Amino acid sequence: MIGAREQKPADAVAGSWVDTLAPGRVRPYLRLARADRPIGGWLLLWPGWWSLALAGAPWPDPVLLALFFIGAFTMRAAGCAYNDIVDRDFDSRVARTRGRPIPSGAISLAQAVAFMVFLSLVGLAVLLQLNHFAILLGLASLVVVACYPFMKRITYWPQLVLGLAFNWGALLGWAAVTGGLSAAPVALYIGGICWTLGYDTIYAHQDKEDDILIGVKSTALRLGEATKPWLWGFYGGFVFCLALAGALVGLSTAFYLGLVLAAGHLVWQITTLDIHDGANCLARFKSNSLYGWIVFAAIIAGKTL
């Protein structure tokens, strides 16, 4: 039962474990962390796991896989809290978001900040388990993360900045294994940015009307009816960079066979996309979690077969 001060946000997942299993006192914090929507954590995790797999010989280190999993989901939660803190005034003006914990009053601003700091400290504890170069590289990502929520106020390309932040794991994973960087993780990072431009443009098409109402920008608004041709470019760039990363580390033919399957999934996303149907856009956006598994399996196959 939702309390008197707690409202269920219109964009919350109906019937999720947050509603059915979580104690009422912690439920607003779980909603602030988007615990009912794990897709964001997976999208943050995949570039790091891909990079660990590329750098591993031949299997990725299971300890590093676990650390990256904890770090990705913790920092994604911290990032959601940070975004809601920055966007609290915008969220209060839109029906879809005014039920979120901060604008609804379920969590005070001070409580939200404290929660964000706690999550950030957990993420820092995970980062400190890595080597010195990886620690410094991970800390450098905070500059991009801090800038992202403000980009939609000044540019129609905030998805580009999101790509810079969400794919940092492509660099960090390699650094965690090798203590440095090389061309392969850079190619993976650039490709990941293209991937994010694709999937987050699809996601942004759900919010076009609200974005216009509150005066924020997105690639969905910038590209409009030309979205699909741009998606071919974004996703094509990603597949090319992923193939290049595989070639740079000498992956076997098995990787490229898997890459064909992965490319087919992206083709499905584009050809079946209806940018005027929010449910259609959300389904294709969420399918990128499955896509991550396909690429991960392809890299493992290219290392081991």
Work out the helix count.
Answer: 17
Per CATH, the class reads Mainly Alpha
Instruction: Give start-end ranges of low-pLDDT stretches.
Output: none
Structural class: mainly alpha
Rounded average pLDDT: 91
Distance from first to last alpha carbon: 52 Å
CATH architecture: Orthogonal Bundle
Q: Helix amount, in percent?
A: over 70%
Strand content: under 5%
The CATH superfamily turns out to be UbiA prenyltransferase
Overall strand count: 0
Report on the biggest sheet.
none
Shape: globular
Rg for CA atoms: 19 Å
Give the number of domains. 1
Which fold does the CATH topology refer to? Tetracycline Repressor, domain 2
Q: Would you list the SSEs in sequence order as H and E?
A: HHHHHHHHHHHHHHHHH
Outline of the structure:
This protein is mostly helical and 305 residues long. It is 72% helix and 0% strand.
